[in-house]
Amino acid sequence: MLLCDFHIHTKYSDGSVELRRTVDLYGQAGFDVIAITDHVVNGDNTIGRLARRFRFSVREDNFDEYISRVREEGERAMHKYGMLVVPGVEISKNHLSSDKSAHILLLDIKEFIPASWTYEKIFLAAKEQGALIVACHPHQMSDMSRNTLFLWNNRDKYARHIDAWEIANRDDVFNVISLKKYPYIANSDFHKTRHLYSWKTLLNCEKDIDSIKQCIRHNKGVAITLFRN
Amino acid sequence: MEIFWIFAVITILGLAGYGLQILAVCSYTSTSPLNSGEGNALPRFFPTISILKPLKGLDDNLFDNLESFCNQEYPEYEIIFPLQDHNDQAYKVARKIKEKYPDKDISIVVERCDEGLNPKVNNLIPAYKIAKYQHILISDSNVMVDRNYLRDIAAPMSAPGVGLVSNLIRGTGGRSIGSVFENLHMNSFVISSVCFLDKFLKMPCVVGKSMLMRQDDLEAIGGLKAFKDVLAEDYMIGKLMHEHGKKVVLSSHIIENVNHYWGLRKFINRHTRWGKLRWKIGGLKYLSELLGNAVFMSSLPIVLWEPSKLTVSFALLVCLLKISGDYYVGRRVASDLNPFLYFLAPVKDLMIGLMWFVPLMSNTVVWRGNRYLIGKDSVLSPYHGDSLCAWRCKVADAIKTRNGVRQYQHL
Question: Which of A17, B11, B107, B165 could form a disulfide with B297 if both were Cys (CB 3.0 to 4.6 A apart)?
């Protein structure tokens, strides 16, 4: 089984650990697959503008550099640790109301997608790039301030666009995902080193990006594990 | 005023002792193959070696630590990674190392062993059973070495009468406050004490992060099983080797103990546990650690007498001297600590001074969630909760549980 974490932030957004050190931290711990998913924040409201101003977001002007750095680290990680690093982003639509907020992981993304686009447009653009779409922390969390409930509240409309849902995020588990029988993965939402020890995904597939995407989409050979030391 | 002078004299004696310790460090580091490139002058002696590397959980830098043993410039050796179960997080890392180096003689042994109370010895016993070679090297998983390590550590074994070779240890990494304190302590108190005991007092002080010996010699002192219930198995192996007439050699080759992301609690837990060991092994000699803690001693008059210009100036002067000493030792052992972090050394010394008292009040340690009683020479025995100190442990456990619940509620 491949030990995976598909939700990791670095100093490219609001993570506290630099990209290289983050990759090393996971490599040293024996992970097989990780995805670097820094925030792409919407700039169409005050929260988003502040996040962009304080550089807690990947922006259009540094997106290519970001992807290229992640790919460089990916090559190093594969050579040194045999670990696959997938470039991704977390599209972050932040609003004051948690009912209106949503975070979406786009894994294996190639071109910039602004968070201010409509959901339909984002999903379409992601599909065109062959990216995997994952709804992040879709339900009530222990830290209420982080709640992003829009996608869950509108699941009837958007579920068909979403490849997988986070059934567990860091220390939270969302049993509603299981009840709805949606495809699932579990991630750390890594921002600090201690977040390494949290929920993770186990995949029974080959260690290449196409097999991984297929495995998650088809929800076959997927398990979750609470990674503790 | 008398109080001040009493503590001032103790402090000056402590500083003098630290000066001797620095001299001892210098005597080793000036001959260190790592630092001076004298490794080539060592005798050529390459016995086949079985490296036993017990694994339990994820240490900082684990992959690199294990990999460094695969890159040794040494003719013939095997590496055995023993683990207690397949679900251990370190198992996956060991598998990756084995896959990356298919041409190396690497074995992973997963076997539950409950022979004794010391989990490290329990972990080592299955590996020891299958070790192919006469020379065995016991090495902790949090140790990283350079390519010449095996060559340098094997060389002293060629001398007649040598039974065990251990190494100097340098703390590296340090990206969190706990790790910085740990590395400051490793690169001052620990390394200088080990050098001092070996150089001036001729006392073997073996730290289990690296121990090379022959199976025959280990069997002569009872084999690994003789230490299954001993907390300080490394120190006791060195002590018994010495008592059996074997030389215990401290190699000047410095190995790295990598600590990147330690929390403060981990630092405190380790050093209260080590303090308990030294109290149970050394008895009254343990007092010398407190008296030798110049920063702590110099700060006591401020608390016990008054925070006057004299007491505060004296304490500050001692802090400066200690910072300088620690910085010098750090340079000698090629520490990678940022020079500004040495200003934290007095804070660390004050904490160590306070932690010194814990072993006097508690004779239990918690290991893997189980509480054990520590007896003379650090012999462990199961804790049944019916001893005189039971109430104290119950209070401590209750506080921990309460804190855990609070943490959960906070989440």
Answer: B11
pLDDT tens digit string along B39-50? 456 667 899 999
Say which amino acid occupies B128. Answer: Y
Min CA distance, A218 vs chain B (Å)?
26
Given a cut of 70, is residue B408 above it in pLDDT? no
Beta bridge partners of B248: B164
Angstrom CA distances, B128 to B31, B246, B352, stand at 32, 21, 36
B127-170, pLDDT tens digit by residue?
Answer: 999 999 999 999 999 999 999 999 999 999 999 999 999 999 99
- The ipTM, to two decimals, is 0.88
Mutation to test the A interface, candidates B63, B81, B95, most A Cβ within 10 Å? B63
* Per-position DSSP letters for A140-153, written without gaps between them: --SSGGG---HHHH
* Of A30, A81, A143, Cβ closest to residue B89: A30
Task: Give residue A95's pLDDT.
Answer: 86
Residues near A94 by beta carbon (within 8 Å), at least 6 away in sequence: A41, A42, A45, A47, A48, A51, A101
Do B372 and B263 share a domain, yes or no? no
Give Cα B191 to chain centroid, integer Å.
9
Helix H or strand E encompassing B374: strand B370-374
Residues B75 and B165 in one domain: yes
Q: What is the pLDDT of residue A58?
A: 92
Instruction: Kindly identify which residue of chain B lies nearest to residue A2, measuring between CA atoms.
Output: B92
- What is the C-alpha separation between A135 and A163, in angstroms, rounded? 8
Give chain B's domain count. Answer: 2
Segment A98-107 shows an average pLDDT of 93
- Name the CATH topology of A2-226: TIM Barrel (3.20.20)
Nearest residue of B to residue A30, measured between CA atoms: B93
Is the Cβ pair B176, A193 closer than 8 Å? yes
Say if residues B72 and B147 touch (Cβ distance below 8 Å).
yes
Q: Is the pLDDT of residue B242 over 90?
A: yes
What pLDDT is attached to residue A33?
97
